[in-house]
Write a sequence for this structure.
């Protein structure tokens, strides 16, 4: 059973009624939405979109009943609840989807949605593996779909202002960017749902979907899926997908040429697999980008520091600040401080506006794929314990067959992408 078999009824039902450039003419046109994945982040996205005047909620899908009901409640009962996302794709009264499932579902659902003629807002990281991301880009282009990655910093006005300032030489020559996320959760996290055992309202087999079959463990589900390679990539694909996206934007390149990662699960004892300490270095031409993550010591929680010959710029969601370099007791530039705004709203508005214009959104699927690839390469290098040389044009690691095998993930039958 391949993807075409699984979704053979979807395209016929959806293509004829999907949101199109001819249908979406003005700001007052209603856009009919569905939500797939009504967990914590999914409901945050849902809440943001529901506040926009043109959004009409139609359906909420989740394999866990309590989450599904919470998503429906946010619509004051206007949306219908569904457990199987395929039933949502079959509907001809849905124009666009929010995909906020665990990462291992992103590619399969997004590609199927594109085939069904629906536009997609897919949470970051875009993919679980590099090969998936490329197929997502191809599906979006083939079916002329607007696909926005949930990297909301891309739509932030102050982020765009900071990037322009840097690229225009405002802080001098830039050859070093440092990004990171630090917190202390030692000795580890605990299950957030079903700690006493599996709930009859949870379809565990459907939650696993294309992931390998494992005995039920409440710690592997809901929020903590992020710490298991079957479903995600740890803080690298969680916060790294945000900060490294901006670092890559600043560097002005599609991909790094070299990657070297170090780290592991050294201190946490909660059963997770992804690193609790990780340091990855990327080469972008004459710019060196570093990513630092720690789950066992906080220090400065969020960092995105850009070092120029005239000044250092620190860029976070609350705004950015420039600290001038000083020579002979004279600053080389003027200090600057700019405040940020609501990134979630700005990103949702960008997606909605692009549904009407059919323009590429700020975090277009191609950009999401490139940043996810950067994250996946960092994890592959860390897991293999060696540096990688990357051929961006071929999307292959040069001279490393073992690393190249890790660019794709096997799917559990009957789920397939091809």
């Amino acid at each position: 059973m391949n993807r075409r078999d699984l979704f053979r009824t979807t395209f016929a039902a959806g293509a004829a009624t999907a949101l199109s450039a001819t249908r979406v003419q003005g700001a007052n046109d209603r856009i009919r939405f569905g939500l797939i994945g009504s967990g914590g982040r999914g409901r945050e996205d849902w809440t943001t979109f529901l506040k926009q005047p043109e959004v009409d909620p139609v359906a909420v899908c989740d394999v866990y009943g309590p989450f599904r009901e919470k998503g429906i409640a946010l619509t004051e009962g206007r949306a219908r609840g569904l457990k199987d996302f395929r039933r949502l794709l079959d509907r001809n009264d849905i124009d666009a989807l929010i995909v906020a499932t665990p990462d291992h579902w992103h590619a399969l659902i997004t590609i199927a949605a594109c085939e069904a003629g629906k536009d997609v807002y897919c949470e970051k990281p875009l993919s679980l593996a590099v090969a998936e991301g490329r197929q997502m880009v191809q599906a979006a282009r083939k079916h002329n779909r607007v696909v926005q990655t949930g990297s909301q910093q891309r739509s932030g006005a102050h982020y765009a202002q900071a990037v322009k300032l840097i690229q225009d030489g405002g802080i001098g020559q830039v050859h070093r960017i440092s990004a990171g996320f630090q917190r202390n959760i030692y000795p580890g996290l605990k299950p957030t749902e079903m700690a006493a055992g599996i709930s009859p309202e949870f379809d565990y087999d459907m939650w696993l979907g294309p992931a390998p079959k494992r005995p039920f463990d409440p710690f592997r589900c809901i929020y903590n899926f992020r710490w298991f390679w079957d479903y995600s990539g740890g803080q690298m694909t969680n916060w790294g997908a945000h900060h490294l996206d901006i670092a890559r934007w600043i560097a002005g390149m599609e991909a790094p040429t070299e990657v070297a990662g170090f780290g592991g699960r050294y201190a946490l004892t909660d059963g997770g697999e992804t690193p609790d300490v990780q340091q990855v270095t990327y080469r972008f031409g004459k710019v060196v980008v570093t990513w630092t993550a720690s789950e066992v010591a906080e220090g400065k929680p969020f960092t995105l520091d850009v070092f120029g010959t005239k000044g250092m710029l620190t860029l976070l969601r609350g705004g950015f600040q420039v600290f001038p370099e000083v020579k002979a007791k004279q600053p080389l530039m003027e200090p600057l401080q700019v405040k940020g705004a609501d990134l979630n709203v700005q990103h949702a508005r960008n997606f909605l506006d692009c549904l009407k214009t059919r323009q590429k959104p700020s975090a277009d699927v191609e950009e999401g794929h490139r940043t996810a690839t950067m994250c996946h390469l960092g994890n592959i290098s860390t897991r293999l314990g060696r540096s990688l040389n990357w051929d961006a044009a071929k999307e292959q690691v040069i001279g490393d067959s073992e690393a190249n095998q890790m660019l794709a993930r096997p799917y559990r039958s009957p789920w397939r992408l091809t």
Q: What stands out?
A: The CA atoms of residues 2 and 416 lie 5 Å apart. The chain has a mean pLDDT of 93. The two ends are 10 Å apart (CA to CA).
